[in-house]
Amino acid sequence: MGNIRIDGRIVEYTVAQAGAEALAGAAAEPLPEEKSKDEPKVIRMHERLERPEMLIGSTYKVKTPMSDHAMYVTINDIVLNEGTEHEKRRPFEIFINSKNLDHYQWIVALTRIMSAVFRKGGDVAFLVDELKAVFDPRGGYFQPGGTFVPSIIAELGQVVEKHLTRIGLLKPVGPSEEQQKFIDEKRAEFAAQSSQRDAFAETSYPKGAQLCGKCSVVAAVMLDGCLTCLNCGYSKCG
Ligand SMILES: [Zn+2]
User: CA 77, CA 85: separation in Å to the nearest integer?
Assistant: First the structure.
């Protein structure tokens, strides 16, 4: 939050009334768009922003081996300052639907709190790290493709991450161009020397690959006597 510089006498002021807004603790701060009269009006995310009649949403299907039924995660976005240079798409609310009602009350609580965090504004990307760090004491599972997920909540974190990346609130994660080139080279090298091309069918990583400690994908293979990950490029030998 920026500081407001006061360079004159304060002549006009009112005392906040103990109305409904004051009780909610909302009256103390001016709305962000009211702060400066000189700058063009830029609307930022804040909790008193009214929900428009219609929001654009994305629904992600999440199927885990932990349940017979898939979860459908819907994240609705609000577009602020549409058509201006300050146009920004931000998540506004999240819903999770599933036929499986075992965890209904927790899902309702979690999605309401996440929606509240979205509407508060500011940096919401911390939710991704918090969710992805949750592990299930009964053990996690492997996604198709060989990525280890420590819990369903962590997978939900991945969904939110994917969504925030897609709408431009998070920078895409992944190997840099240089690393990707290195990975591709190593991958070609491995394929050439072990002629296990058919084993690439299911997971796209060679059979016998080990779990990479860095990116949790079963993609680490021995290359020149050194365990090297074909997904993120991590190598035990540096
Ligand atoms: Zn890796």
Answer: 18
Contact 47, 120 (CB under 8 A): yes
Q: How far apart are the CA of 195 and the centre of ligand 1, in A?
A: 22
CB of 45 within 8 A of CB of 33? no
Report field, pTM of the whole predicted structure over 0.85: no
Strand partners, 221: 228
CA 190 – ligand 1 centroid, Å: 16
For 238, the 3-state DSSP assignment is coil
Please tell me the distance from the alpha carbon of residue 145 to that of residue 218, in angstroms, as a whole number.
Answer: 8
Ligand 1 centroid to residue 201 C-alpha, Å: 19
Q: Where are any strands of DSSP class E within 26-87?
A: 56-62, 71-80
- pLDDT tens digits, 207-222: 788 888 888 888 888 8
